[in-house]
Description:
Order of helices and strands: HHEHEEHE
Number of strands: 4
Distance between the termini: 85 Å
Number of helices: 4
Oligomer: single chain
Strand content: 15-25%
Structural class: alpha+beta
Amino acid sequence: MxxxxxxxxxxxxxxxxxxxxxxxxxxxxxxxxxxxAAACLAxxxxxxxxxxxxxxxxxxxxxxxxxxxxxxxxxxxxxxxLFGTExxxxxxxxxxxxxxxxxxxxxxxxxxxxLTIQDGRGQWRDSHGVIERERSYELxxxxxxxxxxxxxxxxxxxxxAYEKAYAQDSVARLEERTTADF
Length: 182
């Protein structure tokens, strides 16, 4: 009898990694893994066209919900300014009252239609290479993209005024184009 011969009651094939073995049947675990991979590929092959079909036009020929949502709102610029409260010169931290007075005097006159202020905790490396951790404020300004040229120098004046008033090294500025609907 050869090495590959099995007795009538044997239930496992000869191991393919044994020298001289010629059994090429997949092991049960490998067979299960192959079946699972095939099922995943079949699901992706069938599901992808269905997913793309739901993003397209509806049956009436008009734009689908995704297209309607993409066109909602008008073009705006969102500018966020990050204000630290510790003074590098060793002076007292900027208080909530001082910051709100600054907003009333410097920001509200330039952006009377609205703004958002959030309290935060920040960390950054100062001009001396020291990691500073401090209480901070995040100011969000939202304005029509058509006003970007007008608003840019106003925002820079706000940054400069805070740096001078509270001996700050900088006020961070982040900006993004977005759409907004009110």
